[in-house]
Amino acid sequence: MTSIRKREWTTPAGTAKSAWQVDYRDQAGARRSKQFARKKDAEAWLTTAAYQVTQGTHTPDSQSITVAKAAEFWKTRGEREGLEPSTLAAYDQHIRLHIAPLCGDRKLSQLTKPIVEGYRDQLVDTLSRPMASRVLRSLTAIISEAQRRGYVAQNVAQGVRVARAKRERAKVAIPSKIELRALLKAASEASEPMAHPLALVAIFGGLRASELRGLPWPAIDLKGATLTVSQRADLNGTIGAPKSAAGYRTIPLPPSAISALRAWKLQCRASEDDLVFPSIAAKVMSNRYMTLNILGPVLKAAGLVDPAGTDAKGQAMTVARYGLHDLRHAAASLWIEQRVSPKRVQGWMGHSSIQVTFDTYGHLFDQAEQDASVASAIERDLLQ
Hints:
three-stranded antiparallel beta sheet; 13 helices; Integrase-like_cat_sf; DNA polymerase, domain 1; 10 strands; alpha+beta; hpI Integrase, Chain A; Site-specific integrase; 4 domains; Integrase_recombinase_N; DNA integration
């Protein structure tokens, strides 16, 4: 049974006070009450609460926790699940710099979808859209964890999104075939013997930098000409599982890559993890060293650098035009050009969903379709 009644009392200091109290029962049948300064606020709240009780989504304030407390539970679960340090650091930044100042002291039971939509607008106004989207996803995950623990009955942030306009999506940087040929030629002539097999595996295998750094010799089938991704190295050099379940995959390699790997295996220094591309200390190579000291000189020798001003001595400086991730994009573009199906490209790239593949390379698939249409049209004209 629900009711709204006016409550009056006198404080110890002798001041007369009054409030409108809502008495109701939650979905478990427990008696609850909540006070408001105005009757119309009490009536409005009761209307919403009564509906939530019938839907089983109501959480009394007394059983709820603040967003800040829920964020602590979320971070603790991430640590327990063994998330990478870089991921945990990013989550902590989202909480400290954005979520806590925005709504850390508000109870989860007091959140509504319109309120979260308001938070979304504030984030978009103060942050870049990609960052606003990441922070909002963290807030949604925080509420989901609280829901899992029973501190709130529904996730009102579910479905609140920061739409990113297509025109804002930066096109991936994909080296041309001429640039790739120059890169491979420079790699084959480099004084560092690791450079050539590394470039070939990066271009034809499409591995992430973390997967290249954590790649073990047993993952390469020199007879079958395939490479299997089953582990990766995080920023701290710790070997672990791939980025997601989709990260486990087997990729075909061309004869040139297999030949270079055979030759490199004879020279490769032994390492504790039996790595294909170990550091000088026979450990996991850092991302920075692989990018600057192995790939960097190759890009410079191939002429794939751009002017970057001058240093303190007035000497001209350059910056590499491409990085390891751009070679991953190159692999995808080469597969798509050879009419490899989108589903297979998704599998070889290790994408968690086909949508990620289309969002990143959709324009390349469109071009491939157009090219095929042009070729078919020419053929029809000739045959007719």
